[in-house]
């Protein structure tokens, strides 16, 4: 039975984080995974770091006395997929979906941090709820991914209607079961805030998202970027309401006000 988790990581200017990302995934207590790096024509040496690390791990794995838990087939377990041209994070993740061999799909941004038990606990939660789509709580981190103590708690259940007024699902926390939800539905549209648009699309199609209210992810977010990001977020969320979801003006205004209120509370 296929119980593998395919972890999809878009790569663009990720060189400072890649080595840590690989080691972090290797430390996961759930061992049946594959790690797919999608190089979106990154102008730095991210791809070279990934390839070098894969070759290094494959060599080390030949001697199990050095790394008892090493996988001897590391060159297949960690894969580097190079895109021919830069197309953005949405298309990079979609490329990963096409190449994924696992039953379960997890998204991970290269600069975010998973706690070692993230996959194990989240997969157990997904099975307990018999769900197709789950996500977890997370903690804001500084530029060094040190937790700041600001934890975003999540609701136990999230429907489309409720999700419109709260962008509480963070990309690096999600997990999908492709036996219950199609890859086509998980594919991300090429719009701004493509991750939120994807969650809404899935929920709009009748699925319910279940939240594991335990912080298992650290969202690396330097304090200096918060002010500029919030103005971008305002524009993007309004565009999602009006152009992507096609909501009437009064409904969009109500959802926007609720979103803004909750977004502010998360940052206090």
Structure description:
It contains ten helices and ten strands. The protein is α/β, with parallel strands linked by helices and 268 residues long. The protein has helices at 18-26, 46-61, 74-77, 89-99, 118-129, 160-163, 183-186, 194-204, 226-244, 249-266; strands at residues 5-11, 33-39, 78-82, 104-107, 113-114, 133-141, 147-152, 157-158, 175-177, 209-220. Strands 1, 2, 3, 4, 5, 6, 7, 8, 9 and 10 form a ten-stranded mixed β-sheet that branches. Helix 9 runs antiparallel to helix 10 (249-266). The longest helix has 19 residues, at 226-244. The model has no long low-confidence stretch (mean pLDDT 91).
Largest sheet: 10 strands, mixed
Tally of helical runs = 10
Radius of gyration: 18 Å
Low-confidence stretches: none
- Global mean pLDDT: 91
Secondary structure: helix percent? 40-55%
- Structural shape: globular
Reading the helices and strands in chain order gives EHEHHEHEEHEEEHEHHEHH
β-strand number: 10
State the end-to-end distance.
45 Å
β-strand percent reads 15-25%
The SS-based structural class is alpha/beta
């Amino acid at each position: 039975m296929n119980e593998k988790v395919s972890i999809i990581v878009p790569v663009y200017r990720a060189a400072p984080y890649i080595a840590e990302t690989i080691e972090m995934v290797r430390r996961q207590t759930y061992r049946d995974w594959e790690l797919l790096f999608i190089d979106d024509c990154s102008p730095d040496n991210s791809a070279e770091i990934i390839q070098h690390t894969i070759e290094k791990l494959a060599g080390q794995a030949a001697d199990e006395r050095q790394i008892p838990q090493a996988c001897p087939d590391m060159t297949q377990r960690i894969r580097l997929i190079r895109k021919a041209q830069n197309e953005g994070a949405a298309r990079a993740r979609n490329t990963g979906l096409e190449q994924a061999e696992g039953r379960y799909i997890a998204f991970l941004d290269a600069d975010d941090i998973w706690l070692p038990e993230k996959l194990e606990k989240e997969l157990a939660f997904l099975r307990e709820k018999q769900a197709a789509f789950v996500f977890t709580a997370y903690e804001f981190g500084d530029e060094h991914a040190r937790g700041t103590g600001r934890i975003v708690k999540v609701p136990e259940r999230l429907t489309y209607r409720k999700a419109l007024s709260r962008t509480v699902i963070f990309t690096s926390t999600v997990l999908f079961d492709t036996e219950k939800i199609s890859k086509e539905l998980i594919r991300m549209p090429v719009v701004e805030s493509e991750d939120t648009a994807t969650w809404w699309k899935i929920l709009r199609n009748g699925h319910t998202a279940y939240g594991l209210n335990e912080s298992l992810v650290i969202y690396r977010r330097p304090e200096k970027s918060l002010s500029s990001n919030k103005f971008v977020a305002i524009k993007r969320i309004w565009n999602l309401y009006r152009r992507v979801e096609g909501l009437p003006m009064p409904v969009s205004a109500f959802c926007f006000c609720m979103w803004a209120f909750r977004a502010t509370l998360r940052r206090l």
